[in-house]
Amino acid sequence: MAARGKKLINDPNDVVTQFIEGLAETYPGLQYLDGFPEVKVVLRSDVAVGTYDKVAVICGGGSGHEPAHGGFVGQGMLTAAVSGDVFTSPPVNSILAAIRAVTGPKGCLLVVTNYTGDRLNFGLAAEEAKSEGYKVEMVIVGDDCALPPTQGIAGRRGLAGTILVNKVAGAAADACLPLEEVAEQARHAAKLVGTVGVALSVCTLPGQEISERLGPEQIELGLGIHGEPGIAVTEHQRVDVVVTHVLKQILSLETRYVPITRGDRVILLTNGLGATPIMELMIATRKAVRELQLEYGITTDRVYTGSFMTSLDMQGFSISIMKSDTIILQWLDASTKAPCWPAGTDGDRQKPAKVAVPAPPSCAIKSDKMLQQSRELTKEGCILEASIEAGAKGIIRIKDSLNEWDSKVGDGDCGTTMHRGAIAILDDMKKCYPMNDAAETVNEIGATVRRVMGGTTGILYDILCKAAYASLKGIKTVEAKHWANALQASICAISKYGGARVGYRTMLDALIPASEILRERLEAGDDPLDAFVVSSEAAMTGAESTRHMQAQAGRSSYIAADKLASAPDPGAMAAAAWYRAVALSLKSASCHSKP
């Protein structure tokens, strides 16, 4: 039986917030927004709300990659960094809080690593910020050179090259360039950098068991920074041999991921993945500099060695190579007070570490009358309440199974994420869901999952609820056909923003068959309850069929087909589980109500 990883932590649920508190105590130039646990934002202490006279540069993502990105907040680099839970994209509300806290009249640039959850959450936050009057640009960084060029809609992953892009963007902003030019400098830098990682061990998430995926004499090439399996597992070799392979992968003339050829000059970044001693990183750097010069005729203009973007306690390293030019060097050499960029730390703290979260422009507050009405449930309200409770408990029952499946095809936390959402729904439904209004209740469910789930799953379910709400809004008596239309609208919205279709190995492979059967049975005149039950069977069948699909979206798209066949898609199984539980609850309620 695998042992739990030993960590110097308190509660696994508090690791991110307590890291931020320690970071702000260590460096006088940093503060954090007083919005824990939902809002986890580090920002410069010298930037006041709404008054910053330069372009703000914001980056972020799931935690577990420290010092990225909070450690790179400071004059000349990031203006703010947004953290999600470990390996989970930050929610939209946190990103919006960061934008409101540091963005002035010059606007802000969002630098986003190329992961589905980050793209969705930062993208939606950008759109909402624009609607509030902010100027916002977004740059996606996908510097991974390990994977084949064709990977469905997911594309290349964002890795340690993002740190160099952030430095370029931050320096350009500090030089008072306008937003469009800062964004262009960042995009230019992103096109010039490539990265490949190597691991000697798999990372261990706080509170979880140690992975036994890699044997004691094995290393993994091309893995992701969330513990996703790499492109190859091989025997442990001398670091010089490994570095040679990494450079060959980055500079491949077949993929041409980076525009670097013989005679060019480059920037080299050797990045530790969390548990690699600086001695070993320096040895890798030594080999890389010599290999570039002797084998490729490439000179290194700048060399950075250290731990910049890690993967918790993973032992290993990544190498990033960026093509050098005069402008790139100007930005990289520009002064910065970001504490974890290779530079000193100075200055006394002039302001407190903690500051208030800026309030949104408007907040929808339920009146006491509305809450009172929601407690006096109609028959339909009682049925809706029972159905929501059944769906949530259906997810809670399969938490461990979801995590087990996700550990084989993703990052192992699908069950934990869905469980967190289900528990929050059960808690919120008794306090603030207006059950007599189906549309508003669905909207509130979306608000709940948006607040607590985060990542790709959270934003997709938020999108699902928002589309269903729009479909149901204004309907006094919601009937089966209206729920069928709402489900169809939700599927269309998820497909529009997430890019997935049927057969992509996602939650839609459960929901699309359910929707088709439901509409078909209702149009044929079947009893609505029977139609729901039959459609839930289609959802389960569709979810199980994902075992035989090649993923085209999300982190599973990086994993080989033979490994995917070992488990169904956990997102599809979760969707089928709550849908099935709701359908059976409706049927059961009907049976019990008969005399």
Please compute the radius of gyration using only Cα atoms: 25 Å
Backbone shape? globular
Helix coverage percent: 40-55%
The averaged pLDDT comes out at: 89
Low-confidence parts lasting 5 or more residues at pLDDT below 50?
Answer: 344-349
Main sheet makeup: 7 strands, mixed
Into which percentage range does the β-strand content fall?
5-15%
Number of helical elements: 19
Widest beta sheet: strand line-up: 6-5-3-4-2-1-13
Classify the secondary structure makeup into a structural class. Answer: alpha/beta
User: How many strands?
Assistant: 13
Organism: Urochloa decumbens
InterPro entries: DhaK_ATP, DhaK_dom, DhaL_dom, DhaL_dom_sf, Dihydroxyacetone_Kinase
Active site: 226
Keywords: ATP-binding, Kinase, Nucleotide-binding, Transferase
Written description of the protein model:
Substrate binds at residues 62-65, 118. GO terms for molecular function: ATP binding; kinase activity; phosphotransferase activity, alcohol group as acceptor. It comes from Urochloa decumbens. This protein has helices at residues 15-26, 92-102, 116-131, 161-174, 179-191, 239-250, 278-296, 326-333, 368-375, 379-397, 399-409, 414-429, 438-452, 455-472, 480-498, 508-523, 528-544, 561-564, 570-593, and strands at 30-33, 41-44, 56-63, 80-86, 108-113, 136-141, 193-199, 218-221, 232-235, 265-272, 299-306, 316-323, 354-355. The chain is an alpha/beta fold. The strands form 2 sheets. The chain has a 7-stranded mixed β-sheet, with helices on both faces. Strands 9-8-7-12-10-11 form a 6-stranded mixed β-sheet. α3 (116-131) links the parallel β5 and β6 (136-141). It is globular.
